[in-house]
Design brief:
The protein is of the alpha/beta class and about 350 residues long. It has a domain of about 230 residues: 3-Layer(aba) Sandwich (Rossmann fold). Helix content is about 45%, strand content about 15%. Strands 3-2-1-4-5-6-10 form a seven-stranded parallel sheet, with helices on both faces. Strands 7-9-11 form a three-stranded mixed sheet. Strands 8-12 form a two-stranded parallel sheet. Helix 2 links the parallel strand 2 and strand 3. The relative contact order is 0.13. The structure holds nicotinamide-adenine-dinucleotide and 2'deoxy-thymidine-5'-diphospho-alpha-D-glucose. 2'deoxy-thymidine-5'-diphospho-alpha-D-glucose (DAU) binds next to helix 7 and strand 8.
Length: about 350
């Protein structure tokens, strides 16, 4: 079984590559990544060096190069995760989001269709549905209503995949997951940023009133869901993936739990100006993936968060290098005038 994972040096992609080598050791996995600011080869270097995984540094928007790869390899399965993934960056500049998330997906679809790839799983997000009020949950048929350039670019890519399924009888599925957390998470997102800032004694910039709600899923549970969709999901279908109701928490509460786990004082929290069009609440109904594919999340939030905090404590070098590099100029731009 020849498998391609795009975005394989990013947060979820690298966790998926580790998961696949453990759960499906006979699969031949190619890990593709451009290594943008968010990609880090160290996340998968042990697997590349041991020969368990082959690494290709390629740009998914480069149609000739991607066509050449599919011509050579004839993949049975593609997990497509490569993307620009940070909402705040998309607010500062949307260009890369359209290029990577929309054009990049179309380039992969063209190559996969032309070279008769067996199956294509497109990893998307609950953010395509927009924002919820205090109750209810998104179902797979909820109309798309993205509010950030990031979410709009993901919605466009989802529709492109589903259009290929309709037009070409393409064997693709779309997954829409809630917020992930876990190991190798780039420290620009809420949980890794707040863990590492607290460890450094820096302020924790909480947007607005801190009452925006996210539904958190431990990244390994997401990988489990993706493997099930790949192996048993139906073509042309969308599958929501998300945490249990105990993992649906306001940012203020997640922040409090992080500080408690680290034994740090509450006065590190600094309420700052809100994110524009900040979605108030996300939650997804996961009945479809539970009923059809038998998937449920296994990791309770307090357990997953404790493991995540411990990982950042044990891997200071990994995030220290990131936070002292080019990342500093984004931090200055995003947080200076709040
Ligand atoms: P990430 O930013 O950590 O990783 C993205 C990876 O894509 C990076 O390694 C980057 O180098 C690579 N990449 C970017 N542009 C590329 C290009 N042109 N060619 C090849 N590689 C390129 O993101 P993540 O959090 O791991 O998210 C992975 C996917 O899952 C994304 O599609 C995202 O929309 C989706 N998703 C993320 C979450 C979440 O909570 N993190 C939740 C739901 C869905
Ligand atoms: O819902 C799935 C999405 O989850 C994915 O599609 C995205 O790729 C992923 O980045 C994530 O998006 P969010 O915008 O929800 O994640 P982020 O970690 O940026 O923010 C989580 C919440 O925390 C959100 O309400 C904004 C808030 N926040 C974030 C940062 C970075 C703060 O209060 N302060 C911060 O500094």
């Amino acid at each position: 079984m020849k498998v391609l994972v795009t975005g394989a040096a990013g947060f979820i992609g690298s966790n998926l590559v580790h998961y696949l080598t453990k759960e499906r050791p006979s699969w031949k996995v190619t890990a593709l990544d451009l290594l943008t600011y968010a990609g880090n080869l160290k996340n998968i270097s042990s697997l590349v060096e041991s020969g368990q995984v082959r690494f290709e540094r390629l740009d998914i928007t480069d149609d000739k190069v991607i066509d050449g790869l599919f011509e050579r390899e004839k993949y049975d399965l593609v997990f497509h995760l490569a993307a620009e993934s940070h909402v705040d960056r998309s607010i500062l500049s949307a260009r890369e989001f359209v290029s990577t998330n929309v054009t990049g997906t179309q380039v992969l679809l063209d190559a996969a269709y032309k070279h008769k790839t067996g199956r294509f799983v497109h990893i998307s997000t609950d953010e395509v549905y927009g924002s919820l009020g205090p109750t209810g949950a998104f179902v797979e048929t909820t109309p798309l209503d993205p509010t950030s350039p990031y979410a709009a670019s993901k919605a466009a890519s989802d529709l492109m995949v589903l259009a290929f399924c309709k037009t070409h009888k393409f064997n693709g599925s779309v997954t829409r997951c809630t917020n992930n957390y876990g190991f190798y998470h780039f420290p620009e997102k809420l949980i890794p940023l707040f863990i590492t800032n607290a460890m450094e004694g820096k302020k924790l910039p909480l947007y607005g009133d801190g009452m925006n709600v996210r539904s958190w899923l431990f990244v390994t549970d997401h990988c489990d869901a993706l493997l099930r969709v790949a192996e048993k999901g139906r073509a042309g279908e969308v599958y929501n993936i998300g945490g249990n109701s105990e993992a649906e928490l306001p940012n203020k509460e997640v922040t409090r739990m992080i500080l408690e786990l680290l034994g740090k004082p509450a006065d590190l929290v600094q309420q700052v100006g809100d994110r524009p069009a900040h979605d108030r609440r996300y939650a997804v109904d996961t009945t479809k993936i539970k009923d059809e594919l038998g998937w449920t999340p296994k990791t309770p939030f307090n357990e997953g968060l404790a493991r995540t905090v411990a990982w950042y404590q044990e891997n200071r070098e990994w995030w220290g290098e990131i936070k002292s590099g080019a990342y500093l100029s984004f931090y200055e731009k995003n947080y200076a005038n709040r």
